[in-house]
Amino acid sequence: MDLEQAGEALLWEEEPAPTEASSCTLCELSGQRKRVIWGEGSLTAPIVAVLDNPGAREDREGNPFVCGTRDTLQKGLRQAGLSEEQVYVTYLLKCRPIRAYEKETAREACRPYLDLQLGQKRPAMLLCLGDTVVKALSGDPEASVKTMRGHVHHMRGYKAVVSYHPLAVRRRPNLWGRFLEDLQLLKEKIEVKQQ
To answer: Taking a C-beta distance cutoff of 8 angstroms, is the pair 187, 179 a contact?
Structure first.
């Protein structure tokens, strides 16, 4: 379904995690998680959006729902003219943190899984959302969305556009216009690449 056809957020189909990831115990998040969240959206999408970690996916009663991050991202994509078929969403971390954890250790433990995913998907473009992702994928601890947005970058062998984390946009509505500009840049670049 095209995102233009839906005014509200949708539950995108999740891709099951491979067995080696589902049974991973390389960091402390394995003791906190309910399950491994591999990714969601179109399995053959030309755009892979990367967030820092999965958010809540079920309410207290266990019913699936779309969290604020996913809702804001989908609204932005829809307004920028990108369809659901064009986007796959994944995470630096494959487990949802429930309490404090050693962040760098967890990211290092998950890095091979993200590399595996990107190698399998071979996206035309990455969408890096938030400073944590920008620092991790650029390899530059000083990198930031504020200084890098508005341009195409090369990260981990892929062309990439960076923008604010959707939750930051939700909390600070003044970022909405910049968020849309970044998604529109992504749309322009992906259209050129596909011609």
So the answer is: no
The packing angle between helices 176-194 and 68-80, to 10°, is 60
Q: How many CB atoms lie within 10 A of CB 78?
A: 21
The set of residues, in sequence order, having a beta carbon less than 8 Å from that of 76 and lying 6+ positions away, is: 166, 169, 176, 179, 180, 183
Nearest to 161 by CA among 110, 124, 112, 195: 124
pLDDT at position 3: 37
Per DSSP, the residues of 51-120 read: ESS----B-TTS-B---HHHHHHHHHHHHHT--GGGEEEEESSSS---S---HHHHHHHHHHHHHHHHHH
Q: How much is the pTM? A: 0.93
Q: Which residues pair with 154 in a beta bridge?
A: 159
Q: Are 76 and 103 in contact (CB under 8 A)?
A: no
Residue of 41, 188, 12 whose CA lies nearest to 121: 41
Number of neighbouring beta carbons within 10 Å of residue 39: 25
Question: Please, which pLDDT band fits residue 5 given cuts at 50, 70 and 90?
Answer: very low
Q: How confident is the model over 35-72, as pLDDT tens digits?
A: 999 999 999 999 999 999 998 887 677 777 788 999 99
Q: Which amino acid is at 118?
A: L
pLDDT above 70 for 113:
yes
